[in-house]
Amino acid sequence: MEQSMPNTSTQEPMGLAGSGTAQPEAQVHGGHPHILVVDDDPSIRELLAAYLGQNDLRVTAVADGDAMRALLGKQVIDLVVLDLKLGAESGLELARRLRDTSAIPIVILSGQREEADRVMALELGADDYLTKPFSPRELLARVRAILRRRRLDVRQQRLGGLRGYRFGGWEINLGTRQLVSPKGHQSVLTNGEFSLLVALLGAGGRILNRAQLLERSRVHDDEVYDRAVDILIMRLRRKLGEDSAHPRCIVTMRGVGYRFGVPVESIY
After folding, report:
1. Which CATH architecture fits 10-155?
2. Which phi-psi region, left, alpha or beta, contains residue 62 (left: φ > 0; alpha: ψ -120 to 50)?
């Protein structure tokens, strides 16, 4: 394999390998795709965290299925690189369960070269299969190819199960309702703030007037009166660190309504 590089991404402490405990999360880096590596070999985790992390990808590396499930419950993951054999666990079973509950792309790593293993992994829903030993450069190329196809599917609206949005380095997880800053800090949103932000993010840059925003963010009676939209917008701008005089994300269209002013990436 190629030489590993200095590691700028997050992986679990080596002494916790196989513990089943969720490990520290990766920092958010400018909205780059977030790759989850699941492998019980610490040298593989270290190599992939370093190599992929230096190629415009965020990487979190964990040792087992428990840590994988814990992270998937908290983070928006774009692709999973999954070892076929994880000690007592079956990577195929983890892949099957993951595919039953989500459409997250999966790349299987395996020391098994038999055709039957590759066929079974692909039939269970894996998007690609790479045998060990492998070139990190080839893995990177395959990951990028899958992510490109994924973006095309999103543009052509061929996917269901929206999991989150990214915009301007920020990320919002629709399952946990967590808003994460470009530096990895989490913000707590009220129901009204969350619904209003999601309405703007899902509008595709279109202008939404107050009536439309009220309709799309209606959650509690005390938050649905007309001026509440302006109050919620003010609070959201504050949490997004916006310059109130020149906001970048939530833009006021005077006399009309509001629109989202930076590119938005939908995560499925």
Report:
1. 3-Layer(aba) Sandwich (3.40)
2. beta
pLDDT in tens, the chain (268 residues): 444 333 334 544 333 333 333 343 444 445 789 999 999 999 999 999 999 999 999 999 999 999 999 999 888 899 999 998 887 788 888 998 888 877 889 999 988 777 887 888 888 888 899 998 999 999 999 999 999 887 776 665 555 668 889 999 999 988 788 899 998 888 888 778 888 999 999 888 999 998 888 777 664 444 445 567 888 899 899 999 998 889 999 999 998 999 999 999 988 7
pTM: 0.66
How many angstroms separate the CA atoms of 187 and 84, rounded?
Answer: 36
Q: In 35-135, which ranges are continuous DSSP H helix?
A: 42-53, 65-72, 91-101, 115-123
Q: Which fold does the domain 164-267 belong to in CATH?
A: Arc Repressor Mutant, subunit A (1.10.10)
Neighbours of 3 (CB within 10 A): 8
Q: Any idea which residue has 């513990």 for tokens?
A: 19
β-pairing verdict for 186-187 and 34-38: unpaired
Distance CA 153, CA 145 (A): 12
DSSP letter at 25 equals P
- Domain spans, the chain: 10-155, 164-267
Query: What is the spatial distance between Cα 119 and Cα 7, in angstroms, rounded to a whole number?
Result: 33
